[in-house]
Amino acid sequence: MKNIKKFAVLGHPISHSLSPQIHLLFAKEFAINLEYKKFDINKDNFFESINRLKIDGYQGLNITLPLKNAAYEICNKLSERASFSKSVNTITFLGDNIIGDSTDGRGLINDLSNKKIKIKSKNIFLVGAGGAANGAIYDLIQSKPEKIFLTNRTFTKAIEMKKYWNSFAKKNQVILETINLDFSNKLYFDLIINATSSSLTSQHSPLSEYAFNCLKDEGACYEMMYGFETPFMTKAYEKTDSVYDGLGMLVEQAAASFNIWHQLVPTTENIESYLKSL
Ligand code: ATR
Questions:
Q1: Most-buried pick from 38, 46, 112, 115 (CB within 10 A)?
Q2: 157 CB within 6 A, ligand 1
Q3: Nearest to 112, CA basis, from 210, 221, 213, 197
């Protein structure tokens, strides 16, 4: 079709990606003529694939696991958050430039806001120190919680994460603190976020009952994964009804990518329930 705008998502595995459906729904709202494909790409053929898609006239790409760091490496222009997070999930081809941004953090913050979960001046417990946690913490810090507690199964990674983000946190008057996964001192959390991939390999919650008991009565638990109730969510439900998976974050990060490419703000309200019905 003439004048069709070409986009795609790259990752491995990719067959279950919902990004094409989401972007086509956004496009429908503004009557934009676009195609949105998904390509199963691994790290070995990533650079060559990007260049081919650029030559083929693609305007932008979403990048998902395990390629977000490789995408960071290939871009010659980066937003501040992508540069800090060393992660790119949104590429825009503009002239000779490959521009990288990361919308995962904004996706999380916007979804929390949709769910009326406040971050400002609150105590956040961020579980995990891999790509997902590091991809979200820039926006978490910018939302100015009082404190972010960092933890990880491999504790040295949580310590490194604090070291890496500490000056940015201080600049935003946010306190970063590391705690062991099996901590036993009395703490109070307003929000617990699971940014680990533990549900892909384990049937156990990465957090103990003790940690969930440190959640304030009006607190919430957020799982970045989506598609099924994870052990983290099951444990969280024993403490509160305010438990959410990452489907809303997926929709909101897509909306932020759409905004970068089209300078339009799509309606996201009913998309989560539509995706659940698929
Ligand atoms: P991603 O980019 O998806 O975050 P990653 O960089 O491999 O992937 O990080 C995965 C995160 O999940 C890490 O924090 C990892 O902990 P380790 O650093 O100790 O590996 C965490 N994780 C994975 N499986 C876990 C499990 N069964 N229990 C607790 N944490 C787990």
A1: 112
A2: yes
A3: 221
